[in-house]
Amino acid sequence: MGLVKNVIDFVMDILETIVFIGSLFIVVYLFILTPNQVKGASMEPTFISGDYILTSRVTYKFRRPERGDVVVFKSPKNPDIEYIKRIIGLPGDKININDGAVSVNGQVITENYISATTNLWDTGCIKNNVEYSVPDGELFVMGDNRPRSSDSREFCAVPAQSMIGQVFYRYFPTNSVGAIVNPLPRSIR
Length: 189
Prior knowledge:
Its main location: membrane. This protein has about 190 residues and is an alpha+beta fold. Helix content is about 20%, strand content about 30%.
């Protein structure tokens, strides 16, 4: 009988550990960080389709979003779809795109991370050399692969409450593992 009791105690200890670790994983996944897979070419060359990233759900509880942050948010067209884009404009910012050059509050920003010149669409929210004011509580976002990105140029600024979190780490592929650094100088963030 003593052997059976020891085996049962051992199995119960293992089950308690599994339940604890599983519960911890669920809490971390739901409230702290979420793994995501990049799908599509809208963030090339920063992220390639198939890259795996970690998104912090708590960053913006401790600080405000900054221009240059890469974020995951719910699509304004279909909330079941998540987009990954870069914040270009904050609430109250004046955005102007003139012949491919992006200005924020009258200052042209240097975007070494983009793959092609910023284009516009005739049916989009943004028009060439027409200033757009980012409404309160919203963020202006764009993909790094401007010709292949559905973003604020098309559907205007997105509500801040649609933000899932800030992308802070790439964990696959192994040759690209590392922290995601905001490329914009502090003076314009």
